[in-house]
Records
---
Amino acid sequence: MRDAGGSAVVVGGGIGGLAAAVGLRLIGWRVTVVERAATLADVGAGISLHVNGLRALDALGVGAAVRAAARPQYTGGTRTPKGAWLARMDGAALERELGTPIVGIPRAELHRLLRAALPPDRLLVGAEVTSVGHTTPDRLTVTVPDGVLEADLVVAADGVNSRLRARLFPHHPGPVYSGSTVLRAITEHPVDLDSDFEITWGGGAEFGHIAFTDGRAEWHAVLNSPPGVRHTDALAAMRHRFADWHHPVPELLDATRPDAVLHHDIHELATPLPSFTTGRIALLGDAAHAMTPNLGQGACQALEDAVTLTAALATEPTVAAALARYDAERRPRSQSVARAARRAGRMGQQLRHPLATSLRDTAMRLAPSGATLRAILRHADWTPPALG
């Protein structure tokens, strides 16, 4: 709102929720972040941030700190299990085109930098929101174990399994299993790598890595799998599955502690939501548009959400007008990116039949040299709205 800011409760302390809180504080709002986990997401592996995510972080005032902690991705691309290149990534060309390359950073470090932009007393950790109601049509109440918070706005950033989304849209089918599961970890010590970022596609499998500034790396393995399958020794299972894949796949696995491996099934909102807002509640990030990770855009879209919501609240005359603008600007774009990510998975990691994978690989090898750059630009070339 153009005059004095209001008060907001952000439900969920992930990347999107923290970014929204940072943005709202920038425009003078009083914000409380409520996170039901005992700690604020100091877990996870690594993340690649495309230029749209970095521009969003710049708008929030934390872009410089993130860049300083991240490693630019100038070299890498897509390979076959035997190591042949299908497509090369030219980070320098991307930097010339958009002013920055993609960067890689541990998720925990990104969370720490976002938290550092908020007063500690604005983070309510280990608390679950049990209900959201109204005291007046323009005033919300958020019930937590220790009492009731009042706010002009609630931001539902509580993830793919959002409880608030389920309450707001009881007839929506909710998240569905994508058909793929992901195992990932950060290596215990530095690894000798030839590139900053790689993915390798085999039949029904992908293995990739993101290099960090300290020489360590994040690796991920995405596999076609029924949901709920787990391994007694996940690291041993990955060593067996990728034993004959090219360098540095075995070396990355050998540099990993068994207890560092995370394993999650990948769920998405395959049925798009009809709206990202209900009354004075706005859905953001995975709660609004959970997508598969095939384009590396999940966190970047959440950061875009945060900046767009902040800008709308800063410049529109009422909360209602701001939320209408937020929905109109964010829903078409984020849902389009989610569809593109789903298609990318089906044509990439999820392809299993040898003939299909051979045709895909041939098409990638024959693609013009700038095809990879254009594919990245299609989703990453986004300009943040002004915050005032």
---
Amino acid sequence: MHVDHVAFGWDDLDTVRAALDAVGLPFDEGGTHADGTTHMALTGLPDGSYLEYIAPTPGTNPEAAGFWPAALAARAGPAAWCVRVDDVVAETKRAIDAGFAVEGPLHGGRDRPDGRRVEWDQTFERVDAPDRWLFPFPLVDRTPRSWRVSETDGVTPLSGVDTVVLGVADVDDAAALLDRRYRIPAPVLAETDAVAGDVTDVPGAPIALTAAGDARLARVGERPAAVLLGTDDLAAARTAYELTDPVAWGARRAAWFDRDLFRGRVGVIE
């Protein structure tokens, strides 16, 4: 499982840009999606993964947005995640074989600020289930991947998306579903004070699970709740960016980008 990107959803992109500037996390403008209802910016990371910051285009009601309208309207922060695959048709078949209802493959695209059209194919899984955004959507590029994302200047010492923290109603149930689809190892409790409640890591996979609070579940359902970017040097990352004090995350250390919009939602892990 290779994380392609994590979508961070908000109702106004200017607010997200201002928070990124405040913590020193660089980003590139990404343009407008093909249906015209959402636009985005992104932070491209050295391993090819990226954070996408997505919001309704000006004048669009968030609840009418083409991507994750409930999450955008609710200022959910992490809203969805995507895995990079070589063959989206084969990956779609694997989801069907696991008993999941699917939508796709679907043709997607966006227009970059320089006018270049970026295109891809993607499939959404468990489309008949309330926990559908718990699962990543597989994606493959039609146009060169470098058109969709390239490393953003100044992102060192970050390496890539390390861990997607999934906020779920029941950790055991979610782990069983993920195992059915991806054959994941059994989650292991990770001692941390970074988030409220217990967190379990999935060894060898870029996933952690945590029981989301009732308020978040009522607002946005089961979906990514946080994302941690990897670094080999947390001290250097704290020099480069505004981060909270580090806390233990199992045998590692983690810190959040230190603004209300990101704290508890986007961080760094060593």
---
Amino acid sequence: MKISMNRICKSFDKAEVIKSLDLEIQDNDFTTLLGPSGCGKTTILRMIAGLEKPDSGEIWFDDSCVFSDKNRINIPPEKRNIGFVFQDFALWPHLSVFENVAFGLRAKKDTVNIKERVNEALESVQLSEYKDRYPSQLSGGQQQRVGFARAIVTKPDCILFDEPLSALDAILREDMRLEMKGLIEKLNTTAVFVTHDQMEAMSMSDWIIVMNKGRIEQQGKPENIYQRPKTHFIANFIGKSNWVESDSMFRPETAALKKKDGYREFPAVVSGIDFLGEKYNLYLNVHGKRWTVESSSRYSVGAEVSVYVNEHDIVTI
């Protein structure tokens, strides 16, 4: 399902959160809305779901209008055929895993073959043997899988994710990223994922839309967003940036500490060092600018080094 948002505006208490937004999410893509807290990404997600009403504009699912202030259209959430995976899992503590997954079907009075459909959803997230347990008897990762099974059991045209991994620890979060991406690919459905975590966005997405203060800063493939940022905000928000001038930068991993023909040389002094296991991060003073580069060797604070950068890796913004 393709989602189109046209000239969408939304304010809370006279504070404009979304500012005349035009946005398209392509059919069967895994699209991530990425940005800092308060940039409007969750508000966009909730407007797609019908949980928030825009002040103006239109929202289309393929060729069907689900919201239009001009034409007074506002299709309720339960009729939009959207799955929603919440940040806090939102499971009913008094219901078993089976009944939590079945809840949406029962609420819609869509109970034909309900047992088979719920069991199929639980099997897809590898929780069949836990169907009689209660949320308090599950780990965080298992609870998140229940939330995902509940979202897919209704066979939605699109699944929305509101920072679903933020409550998990770092190791489990990495495992769930791979698992969730794989499940979405198997379902062959449209997914919209909201996060402020750049690693999640880069590793999971087909397409990234970077938000800032209610507006789109840049959108594109993860590689393009990272390698060719279009604004200072993007360059500083995603990854690390070493600024050569006020309008040009390069990524730390593109630099070398050994001389290379055709590379620009920048004298620097080591001002700090982090040991990261497989490598070191060196913090450098380069004519008053603070740079970070990667190194396989340890250097002493105060050591003088040279940084070599290919001109093609320097991005002008």
---
Amino acid sequence: MKHRIYGVVGWKNAGKTGLMERLVTEITGRGFAVSTVKHAHHSFDVDHPGKDSHRHRLAGAREVLLASGNRWALMHELKEEQEPPLAALLDRLSPVDLVLVEGYKRDAHPKVEAFRAETGNPLIATDDPTVRAVAADTPVETDRPLFELDDTVAIADFILAEVGL
């Protein structure tokens, strides 16, 4: 299944997660189904020592599926496997109108860059044509469309136009 995807990238503390959260709220509020993919550091964990699912994993289970009346979650242990590419992970998602991806800045999908001056980092957009717009907390020099970091409506309008929704 080919998903419509749009990324949010930026350096640490640039406002990626807040922007993602606001975009999900705004876009789902317009009636679209949205899923998200977040790239995390390799050591992240979603279950905790002592819990049954954690014990199953430690015992050697390759996949552990947790299910309740409210949600289900599938954990897959990579063990010695390489981290799967984004495309393989997207194939595991149910169909939705839009998948917003946080991170994966080296992948080829279109992205908006979250930028905060205080981080002292350079713009990613300068050297990355896949960054289609910049959402910044300060005026910046860029040849891409520039949005206020907190102008969620305008950023959502831009993304939805870009993906044809």
